[in-house]
Design brief:
- It is a single chain.
- This protein is α+β, with helices and mostly antiparallel strands.
- It has a single domain, classed as Distorted Sandwich (Acetylcholine Binding Protein, Chain: A), CATH 2.70.170.
- Strands 1, 2, 5, 6, 7, 9 and 10 form a 7-stranded mixed sheet that branches.
- The radius of gyration is 18 Å and the shape is globular.
Length: about 220
Amino acid sequence: MRRTRPLAALCLAAVAGPVWAHPHIFVDAGLTVMLDDAGSVAAVEVTWRYDELYSLILAEDYGLDPDYDLQLTEAEVAETLGFDLNWSAGFTGGLVMRQAGAELDLGPPEPVALRMLDTGQIETTHRRAVTGAAPGDLAAQIYDPEFYIAFEMILPVTVADAPSCDVALVRADLDAAYAGLEAALEEIGGAVAAEDNFPAVGALFADRVEITCPE
């Protein structure tokens, strides 16, 4: 059930042809927000869980789990940890955090963990420092502007050592998102000639998490 919406998008892609051939990779995402002594967010750990097909491709590419026991050795983890943090130009990690409408500054990613689940899916966690925050409500999104990757924020989102904080997930409005995509395609003549001119519509498909902590 958790892939109903992205798989529906893929079915549309198969019918509509190359113009709709996005996204290519599906990632479930979650966050652990860490507060400082004043109650301001100081850092965030981001977890990405790759879809089954792409996990298989990654395992083949990086020589992971050659005995197919769904267990990674310490050597495999050490050699591969951080493989997905060498981001290309224009992609800054997908995470956007806002407070009172202003975007917070995020530091470079630091690898934390790499694991293989019993489903064969590869899951990674990285940490980023956060600056410019004050005590108060937060909003977070994870998306690829080019929509090559489809993120869903359906993994746990928690605030470390602050169980009284409330976390609310607001799912993307897919009807509005696809209407926006159609409008963007019309603006470029209705055809996508190459991968790099697909309209930047990832934000339209982005879930949003709202975090409220008592003062």
